[in-house]
Amino acid sequence: MKKIALISLFLSGVFLLPSLNAQVKNTEQNILSAKRSIIKNLERWHKAAAEANFEDYFSLMTDDAIFIGTDATENWNLEEFKEFSRPYFEAGKAWSFKAIERNIYLKENRRLAWFDELLDTHMGICRGSGVMAKDNGKWKVQHYVLSITIPNENVDEITLIKKEFDEELISKLRDN
């Protein structure tokens, strides 16, 4: 009886292996496809800003999107960010960010992803990081954080430059 069970187990494994390999390959292809879509939409998003295309830019963000800018006071929901950005887009001069490095990570269900990117900008190298969510079948920016990068050897100098601003903002925020 044990021999029959072992033979059955062996044969079922032999016949299941090709199926499991196909599933793994299909999953890998789905992940690559999702990453390509995310990259494409991030590129479209940055391009829309560079071309000052307000509608295209904001259509690539979710309705509950958050944008956190380089200034400590810049933490906007979508409507606030639109209001802040509109004059730049209307003047035909939004911003131009070109990714020079990007990493994308996917949640198992492939409906949520997070990323980080180094950007070539008018401020020098910046880092963007964020969350992409699948919204009606399309990958959109749900949360984005833009940071100016500072070489470690310049941190003391930058800290001194922004000390007064930081102290005032810290005081104001603590009083609230």
Automatic annotation (TrEMBL):
Residues annotated as domain SnoaL-like: 42-151
Segment forming the signal sequence: 1-22
Classification via SUPFAM superfamilies: NTF2-like (SSF54427)
InterPro entries reported for this sequence: NTF2-like_dom_sf, SnoaL-like
UniProt superkingdom: Bacteria
Keyword annotations: Signal
Pfam family, one: SnoaL_3
Name this protein carries in UniProt: Nuclear transport factor 2 family protein
Protein's organism: Gramella jeungdoensis
